[in-house]
Amino acid sequence: MAAVIVTDDIMRYTVEIGDVTRIEDWVYAKVDLSKWRDISGNNFYHLCVLCGKPSVLEKIDQTFPQYRCLVKQENGNGMTPLLMCCKSGPYIDSATTLATIDLLLRLDGQPTMQTFSKCISVAKEHNDIRVYLRWRKGSPSGLPNFIKKENNDIILKYINVVETVDKGKTKRYQKCMLERQGVFEHIRIFYVGPEGVGKSTLCRRMTNRSTQNIRSTDLMDSSMNRLAVNLRTCQRREIHEDTAYQLSIEKIRKEIHHSDQKLHPPGVTSPTTSKPPTRPNDGERLDTLSNEVKENDVPKHTLDRQKSSFKFPLGSYGQQSEREKKLIYNAAEINFAGDLQKSTDEEAYISLWDFAGEELYMNTNHLFLTGDAVFLLLFNIVQCINDSRHIKRLHMWLKSIDALSEDRSSPTLQAPPIVLIGTHLDQLPGSDSEKTLQAESFYSDIVTRHPVMAAIAERHIVTFFPLDNLKDDNPMYEMLWYAIVKAAQHQSHWKCPVPMVWLALERDIMLAKGKRVRVMTLDEVIEKVKGLEVEVKEGEFGVEECLRYLHRTGIILCFGTDSPDSKIITDPQWLARGFRAIITARNFMPDIPEHSEVMDHYYKTGEITLALIKLLWGKEKEDGFLQHEPVLIAYMVRLGLLTPPLSEGGIDIDEVFFVPSILPEAEPEKIQHLIENTYTQRSATLCFVFINVFVSSPVYDKVMAFCIHNFGKADLTFMEQGYCLQRGLGCFRLNRRRNMVLHCQDSIIKLTMFSSTSDDALEAGEGFHLKNVLTAMLKTVLVTNQQGHLVKEFDLFLDKSYRVTNDGKYVRESDLAQSSEPLDCSGPANSKTVCKSDWDVWFVDPSLRADVMESATVSPFNTVKRFTSKQMSRIAKYIGSSYCLLFTELGMKLHEMEQVRESYSSECFRTFITQLLCKWQNGLPPKSSIQSIYTALSANHVETSLLSTELQSDIASMDPSDEDACRVPNENDIDCIALRLNKSYVIFFLELGMEIAEVDQAMLDCKNVRRAFTKLLKQWVDRCGQTASMGRIYKAMQECGMEHNSLRE
């Protein structure tokens, strides 16, 4: 294909007429805007300034942010686009000067004081530009969204209002922020359904956007907070910017306006002012503003703008404290916005979420799918009529949405509401009326013929719409808006009260998000609370509750606020895009030979290396994934999107992850010979059964992620290892005697313990703690998936089949507990009953068994009064993949273990276990910990005889003939040792006799890890004096598995 050549005249004409689509086509055709120049050396940004087209510049920047570097580049006269604009202004439309300068300053990122000085200097002939620049210099956030696209007159009037805002309005604003609660009136519209049914097309048509060149949605396309809708008339208006920040401003303004209307109805004089309000009518507001500008002697702006009489008002604003400045600024913004655009109490704000329908994306879709939305569920009528498989997919979607409902017992319409839409009506035979009748008849059939679907329809479906995909101006679209508004009242959080100060914090977080701040710490959020325009007493704001509210509504991601360094992700879609790069890796590297083997392994096994993740993220430079790699990985692990595995010995496998949704499809019959042969000792199968509830595959992917993360692979032969991990099916190691198989399908999770020797009988209570761990894990997964209400929807059953089948027969555990006779159940031919002894394995508390209680009194640790940190480290060495069951037996909660593991995620597994042991022991009286630990170790089949000897031993004395081992480390030695320490460094220092608290403190004090190691080694040498020998260093390193021979050499 011939290269596209864009001449000066063609480019200038295209910019002048605002043909953004043509410019985009040039870029897609490999025209590099970063290298394009006209004869005067002007780049594309210069040209937009000369033509007075900031809208073109902004749209191109949104689509191709990689060209933002042009804002700093100079033309042949040494002028950047910003300086050119300040000196001469737009060549064609002088009214856009200030809007253009504001845009260029925003694209510049964080302009320096030197930048402002240069701009003010070149604008010496234009007083209005200098007025704006002086104001902008002290207002880093720039013009608010509702004003920044207006003409110069309105922008200058706004600046004047900010500087001279009425004190009475400021006080009312402050009082409202502190005392009032807002009302949650936000309609989230979720376009969902299978791929290729027309979701994106419908979304665009409903918002009057072009449907040309539309492509299949990749993951999700969201138009956040683009519209406001009148709840009475269904009239829509577009919000200036497609940003969450604008919505937060709109919400605050609406509540302030509503408060003012209550206090001072229109026509009633405010007690703080001497004149009645003069708010313009809706149809006249812009003309009125223009007249007011004239009356106030703010001049009309001509091309030269040499004699502007507008004066920058000097006074109180510049002399206030930062909080007072912010209060005045926001009060002015809210009041001025009320004059500029009308908002009523009847308005709600809308965000549109267009979700990809492919199964591949279901895991990330679940980050956003909640009951707090109106679901537009689309399906292809023609496909469903011709193929029953498509009806099954429609049923799956209906059941998935129903699972988000918090109260399915009620037969009345409830959250989340569904508008069911049948597309491709035009492809049915007959006239328009006949097509509609066919569609409505089909809808009636799929609902009434299936009792479960009929119940779901009764609870959730508001109405059914058949749509013709060929019509852009279908009147049904307007009817659809009325249906959405009607359905909105059934959203789960509709009209819920929200403190106004929470809205203020949301506004500031969204402002940071708009500046591409992806991650914030809890400390940074607290600083934003302290920096709000109103002062809230400590403890009264409810930061954690506010973050939970923002998380629940999909505005941010926040899991826990356990430490000041806890991370909050301000843009959940950013994380979803990062995961998309992982699960669609072949799209990023389709034909790169050096990666083909790694890619094949990934797609066959679901196993991916950190190096490959970094390579994929490195291709998405604009998103800055690599900059926040540890936070992204931590959140994806927390969400169960990917997970680091635990090896059989409980040792970390560095820089390797499994992606549960990429695992090969489950083939449970492939392990039947392993589980059901005569030599295998197995338990009855514990079944978690969700009663009349659909459980989606992402839930089971996250269950698998938990098991991969907390249990090693089962002890199987090399050939059998290939079947250990499949999607929804896994074989895991519990301890050196027991394995388990987990199978998840439909609405059932099955758990079976097994061992390879027939004489290794299972004892009562042996599965008790495993049951508790899996129950706690399942509850955590449901809450994380925003389906916490389903915690009450599952019950426990038993049978004898390790896999889920369509004809399974299960025995409720409560029935079996009271039965003295075996009860019939599903299972292999020779085992179709369960009895009380099967129940005992899972439900008897082993600590209450007489033999266990007796063994606790003969602990070989009885001579130990209390374990030291070093002894805890020695015990940790013996605890492998059974740690989860062991600590559950010791009484620790699953979330406590997860908190510790997250805190020490960058350190070795043994350090994590040591920290768990210390945390557990600190909560118990002496002696009781010794007995409990011995009992737990024995129950998990840990060999304790060698451990007992090891706990009594200390570092042996050095051989006097070994001079190197006997000498005290010098500074050079300390530097060399510090270089060789790895992620087992905590264990190393414990072996030297130091305490965990000392190590933690040094890591806090020293930002550099090597400096912290050096500091700790010097402390140890100073403390031990002549007994601090190199020999002790060697033995400590050997204990930690560190390489130390080269240190001797």
Automatic annotation (TrEMBL):
GO molecular function: kinase activity; nucleotide binding
UniProt-listed GO biological process terms: signal transduction
Membrane-spanning segments: none
Keyword annotations: Kinase, Nucleotide-binding, Repeat, Transferase
Composition bias type Low complexity, residue spans: 265-276
Region (Disordered): 257-305
Keyword Metal-binding: no
Protein name: Serine/threonine-protein kinase roco5
Source species of the chain: Mizuhopecten yessoensis (Japanese scallop)
Taxonomic path: Eukaryota, Metazoa, Spiralia, Lophotrochozoa, Mollusca
